[in-house]
Amino acid sequence: MWSRRFYRRAVNHVTSEIHGEDLARPVIVFSPHPDDETLGCGGTIIKKRKVGSDVTIVFMTDGHQSHAHLIAAHRLKSIRAREALAASGVLGVGESDVLFLGFEDGELCENQDAAILKVVEILQHRRPDEIFIPYHREALPDHVATHGIVVSALHTCGSNVTVYEYPIWFWHQWPWVSVPLALRRETFATLKDSIVAGFGLRLLWDFRYSVYIGDVLELKRTALTQYKSQMIRLIPDPRWMTLDDVWGGEFLPCFFQDHEIFHRMASLKNR
């Protein structure tokens, strides 16, 4: 599609590339669910680890709701935790630097005070120079809550760190996924979201920083394959949705472009 090609080319012209010494800065990546860290900034994590950066990954929820209608919650919690450790290992992050806060998937909003206290403790102990959190315009409740919890914790700590926001469900709109021809509810929802987002112009307005990951894309793919519960059907039931099923397979390729893009939040001191 010409519109996708246009915006992909535009990334190279409107973003400032993060590289060199900036990649080496210690960072904490906050992931709403196991797999968001790999999808949103997995290539960046790999690049940072290759230059010796201290990287911590914090999983906010247990992710058990992804297929709760088909598998017992305790089993899926265990599966997703093992997958998260395996994926983190491929990204270059050891088990001692992977933290699980253990909040219930889908209920992070109801546990914000407790989550803020835990994040404050992590920030005070790890003392990062950078933070990666979900994009502030994400629609999913746990993504919104993760963003708010981390920002509140940073205010509590008085931390002056660089905050980068990574997109996940931002990609679930035109031109990154096609608008179906049939006049269905999904069509109107997609058009509405796209109009609000400026028909893709949000990419050029908000995402002004990027990391080139073309040289580590295969390793990022390998990391994502560790999330077998999200990538394949663990049971032979067509209701077991995978990431490749999202929007007819058009969603997943958005995360395997040559650059990962980020919105950099304004200084917390100015907020």
Care to describe what's here?
The chain is an alpha/beta fold and 271 residues long. The chain has a single domain, classed as LmbE-like (Rossmann fold). 40% of the residues lie in helices and 15% in strands. The chain is built from nine helices and eight strands. It has helices at 2-14, 36-50, 73-91, 112-126, 141-157, 185-196, 202-206, 217-225, 228-231; strands spanning 16-17, 27-31, 55-61, 98-103, 130-134, 162-166, 209-212, 259-264. It has an eight-stranded mixed sheet with strand order 1-7-8-6-5-2-3-4, with helices on both faces. Strand 5 (130-134), helix 5 and strand 6 form a beta-alpha-beta unit. Helix 2 packs across helix 8 (217-225), helix 3 (73-91) packs antiparallel against helix 8 (217-225) and helix 4 (112-126) packs across helix 5 (141-157). It is globular, with a radius of gyration of 18 Å.
Structural class: alpha/beta
Number of strands: 8
Count of DSSP helices? 9
Percent helix, as a range, is 40-55%
State the distance separating the first and last CA atoms.
39 Å
Mean pLDDT: 88
Largest sheet: 8 strands, mixed
The name of the CATH topology is Rossmann fold
Strand content: 5-15%
Order of helices and strands: HEEHEHEHEHEHHEHHE
Any idea what the CATH architecture is? 3-Layer(aba) Sandwich
Question: Which runs of at least 5 residues are low in confidence (pLDDT < 50)?
Answer: 195-199
